[in-house]
Amino acid sequence: MTTLMITTPSRQGREAFVTADSQAPVKALQASASPADLKGITFTSQAAAIRYLQIFNAASAPADGLPPTRGAIPINPGETIEWEPSEAKFFSTGLYVCSSTTQNTKTLSGNDDMWITVDFIPRA
């Protein structure tokens, strides 16, 4: 998997941010392996069944069976979800996003069936 990373410079009082884009359908995306403020996510399902967008405070892929750090957002087959928190959410370790077949714990599907884009601000 190749992840495209684009840095958008700051302008008009807004902080610079980075966009991590999966560039193809995937099961998961490690957007940042270091602290980051989550600005928004776009998630498009090509799955045949409902999936759950899960967000983890992790610098690498967490083990299956763990609960997500920030709940789970259900996504129907063929649906696109754009989620932007009212204010940036801080992730102290890293930012990992995945498609799970179960709502309460991480269970990756067997197929690469999600397009994932994550906007975030890197933190030192």
How would you portray this structure in words?
The chain is mainly beta. It has one domain. Helix content is 0%, strand content 46%. It has strands at residues 4-8, 17-21, 28-32, 36-45, 51-56, 72-75, 80-83, 89-91, 95-100, 114-122. Strands 1, 2, 4, 7, 8 and 10 form a 6-stranded antiparallel sheet that branches. The protein has a 4-stranded antiparallel sheet with strand order 3-9-5-6, with no helix packed on it. A hairpin with an 8-residue loop joins β1 (4-8) and β2 (17-21). The chain is globular and about 40 Å long. The chain starts with a strand and ends with a strand. The model has no long low-confidence stretch (mean pLDDT 89).
Chain-wise SSE layout:
Layout: E1 4-8, E2 17-21, E3 28-32, E4 36-45, E5 51-56, E6 72-75, E7 80-83, E8 89-91, E9 95-100, E10 114-122
Antiparallel strand pairs: 1-2, 2-10, 3-9, 4-7, 4-8, 4-10, 5-6, 5-9
Low-confidence segments = none
Query: What does the average pLDDT come to?
Result: 89
Number of helices: 0
| Biggest β-sheet description | 6 strands, antiparallel
Structural class: mainly beta
Return the string of H and E elements. Answer: EEEEEEEEEE
Helix share bin: under 10%
| Mass-distribution shape | globular
